[in-house]
Amino acid sequence: MSLGIPEQITALLFDLDGVLTSTAVLHRKAWKQTFESMGQPFSEQDYLAYVDGKPRYDGVRSFLASRGLTPPEDEIRRIGDQKNDLVNQIIDEEGITPYPASVRYLQEARKAGIPIGVVTSSANAMRVLRAGDLLDYVDALVDGNVITASNLQGKPAPDSFLEGARRLKTAPEHAAVFEDALAGVKAGHDGGFGFVVGVDRGHQREALKTNGADQVVDELDELLS
Considering the chain, what is the average pLDDT of its residues? Predict the structure, then answer.
């Protein structure tokens, strides 16, 4: 079965939240509760524009800057940690559900023998992958912990995807990136990756294309033929 990718692609790099699992919805809920507890209204558009796909503290800075607020670094970290505690609580309460179409795509990629990496800003990736029964598909993981420990810039910088390609021993031009966040699509494009797939979970098809997606799908199994 064809994976719907160019012939030169020999490795696949997937974002986690919103691409493989529905946890993006849980993150959005946690961000909303966190910011609104501070008296700052937070909409779906705020999520997409300011925090989606970015490392946690960068998301705090970005959203608050949009409101003309520049709190000190310790306050930014307190807010980000509060959000992280809340998303963990929500995960415990609501569980993790992988997208069936994404699991099908992973299964076909595994059958084809193509190395698979997960590249995410989340520090909870291992927990989510384990809860979603996805670990067996993952050959390399670059998560929020790796990004911090390796002093990498978060998305929209391409650093984390470049590290994922390095761990799969693949040049960027031979790797495909799968992303639902505008920041992640831009990272894939700016990193010189050979194929960038935008997954439209937020009615932002045109914005995904503008930020560098070579192809946009609603579900990953649309690529299969």
Answer: 94
Give me the sign of the Cα torsion angle 110, 55, 87, 47: negative
Please identify, in words, the CATH class of the domain defined by 11-22+97-223: alpha beta
190 is catalytic: no
* Residue 17 is a catalytic residue: yes
**Domain limits, CATH 3.40.50.1000, in the chain:** 11-22+97-223
Please tell me whether residue 125 adopts helix, strand or coil conformation.
Answer: helix
Separation CA 38–CA 102 (nearest Å): 36
- What the block records as the tokens of 80 is 């980000």
CATH 1.10.150.240: which residues of the chain? 24-94
CA–CA dist 162, 195 (Å, integer): 14
pLDDT tens profile 58-105:
999 999 999 999 999 999 999 999 999 998 898 888 888 899 999 999
Which of 17, 159, 180, 214 is labelled catalytic? 17
Tokens, residue 58: 């960068």
* CATH fit for domain 24-94, picks 1.10.150.240, 3.40.190.10, 3.20.20.70, 3.30.365.10: 1.10.150.240
Torsion-angle region of 18 (φ positive above 0: left; ψ -120 to 50: alpha; else: beta): left
Q: Please tell me whether the overall predicted TM-score, pTM, comes out greater than 0.70 for this model.
A: yes
